[in-house]
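Figure 6 in text form: structure in, sequence out.
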């Protein structure tokens, strides 16, 4: 997420880049943790303690509508935000709920020619379910103070939840190239 580009996008829309918008964009810039709206609010409040939750949620909605941020539906109806707009998929850890970016080079996902021939495919959503590197490497079934893997305790401390799916755009000669999923949405 590029705050300079976002400033220009707001100007093009006839709006100002307020300090609140700048704070939200700065918090999300380079973030790979896929934060929830509540996590974004907490991070912004460390700099602007009086910012209203509705302001942060509205800014997140604006960024999604501009295509500068992806909103991904989480388990239990929660939404997480992904500022990484590059083509990628995700791994959802079934143990700790961590959501990791997965390079498309690490996956083998193709649309069969017979399927694509009878349809117009624009995008696809892929979520890999399994164990993250921390949980997979954990020799003991529970090494955190709560009796769960240490990465689960760290995720819970951040208030995170796992996700059910995400969007990727394919880039392979052997399958159709998909543009990024245009779907956005609210918190």
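Output sequence:
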């Amino acid at each position: 997420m590029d705050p300079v580009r976002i400033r220009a996008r707001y100007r093009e829309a006839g709006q100002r880049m307020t300090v609140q918008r700048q704070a939200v964009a700065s918090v999300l810039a380079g973030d790979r943790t896929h934060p929830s709206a509540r996590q974004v609010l907490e991070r912004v409040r460390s700099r602007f303690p009086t910012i209203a939750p509705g302001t942060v949620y509205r800014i997140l909605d604006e960024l999604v509508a501009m295509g500068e941020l992806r909103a991904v539906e989480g388990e239990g109806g929660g939404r997480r935000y992904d500022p990484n707009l590059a083509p990628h998929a995700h791994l959802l850890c079934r143990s700790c709920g961590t959501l990791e970016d997965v390079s498309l080079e690490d996956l083998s996902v193709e649309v069969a020619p017979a399927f694509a021939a009878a349809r117009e495919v624009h995008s696809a959503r892929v979520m890999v379910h399994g164990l993250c590197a921390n949980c997979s490497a954990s020799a003991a079934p529970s090494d955190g103070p709560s009796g769960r893997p240490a990465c689960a305790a760290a995720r819970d401390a951040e208030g995170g939840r796992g996700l059910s799916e995400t969007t990727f755009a394919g880039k392979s000669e052997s399958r159709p190239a998909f543009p990024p999923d245009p779907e956005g949405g609210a918190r």
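Caption detail: The mean pLDDT is 76.
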